[in-house]
Each structure stands twice: as structure tokens, then as C-alpha cells.
Design a protein that fits this description.
2 domains; rod-shaped; 5 helices; mainly alpha; binds heme C
């Protein structure tokens, strides 16, 4: 009976360890997800807007002086590669990161 209780307790302990681990992983993933989505901003655009694939920071800032202009420009781009990057929020964040008002 004592032995049974001991294994029971050990099993319970392992369960909560596993739960902790799962919680920990969940927190990591959530943090990572939040980090990626809310701190994307210009970082997300930089992949292509490097001066080779698409105009870089400097040339975009020369062409567009305000956030509104940049957003309009991005939305108006006919290039199919830009198609997935026309969300209001992400464009606003990117414009903000570029220092446009
Ligand atoms: C997957 C690659 C890619 C990503 C990511 C991307 N773009 Fe673009 N973007 C392009 C390409 C390609 C063009 C077309 C360039 C051209 O016409 O010379 C373009 C065009 C533009 C233009 C118009 C440029 C012009 O000359 O008028 C703007 C503004 C723009 N992007 C803003 C953004 C912003 C802001 C983001 C981030 C939210 C972003 N792009 C993310 C590839 C990308």
C-alpha cells in the first residue's frame, strides 16, 4: 500500500512536470508569435526591400514623404510579390519604423 502511494505520488509529480513543460513551450510559442506579428514592421519588408528585389529604405523615403503616401504606394503596387503585404496595420507599422508620419 505504501509502495502504491509512492508510485502514485511520483506519477503525479511527473504529470505536473510535463504540464509545466507544456505550459513553458506554450508561453515560448506565444511570445515568439507576438514578437513576430507585432514587432514585424519594417523588419518584415526588409527581406525584399533591400535595394535589389525591391526599392530599399532610402529610395522609398525619397519617393514617399508621408506614411499615407507610402501606404498608398504599397497598396498601389502592381507587383504580385507585394500582394500579401497590403494590410493597413503592417503598412502603418512599417511606415512608422521608417520614421514617416
Ligand atoms: C516578398 C517581398 C516583399 C515584401 C515582404 C514587401 N515588399 Fe514591397 N515590394 C516588393 C516588390 C517586388 C515591389 C515592386 C518593386 C518595383 O516595382 O520595382 C514592391 C513595391 C513596394 C512599394 C512601391 C514601391 C515604388 O517604387 O513605388 C512600396 C511602397 C512597398 N513595396 C512597401 C512595402 C512595405 C511597407 C512592406 C512591409 C509591410 C513591403 N513592401 C513588403 C516586394 C516586397
Amino acid at each position: 500500500m505504501i509502495a502504491f502511494r509512492q508510485t502514485y505520488l511520483i506519477e503525479k509529480g511527473e504529470m505536473s512536470m510535463r504540464k509545466c513543460l507544456v505550459m513553458f513551450i506554450m508561453i515560448c510559442l506565444t511570445t515568439l508569435f507576438c514578437f513576430n506579428s507585432s514587432h514585424g514592421g519594417w523588419e518584415k519588408c526588409k527581406v525584399c526591400h533591400n535595394g535589389r528585389t525591391a526599392p530599399d529604405e532610402k529610395s522609398l523615403k525619397t519617393k514617399y514623404q508621408t506614411a499615407d503616401e507610402l501606404i498608398k504606394g504599397a497598396k498601389g503596387s502592381l507587383n504580385p510579390i507585394m500582394k500579401n503585404y497590403k494590410g493597413d496595420e503592417e503598412l502603418k507599422e512599417a511606415a512608422n519604423d521608417l520614421g514617416l508620419k
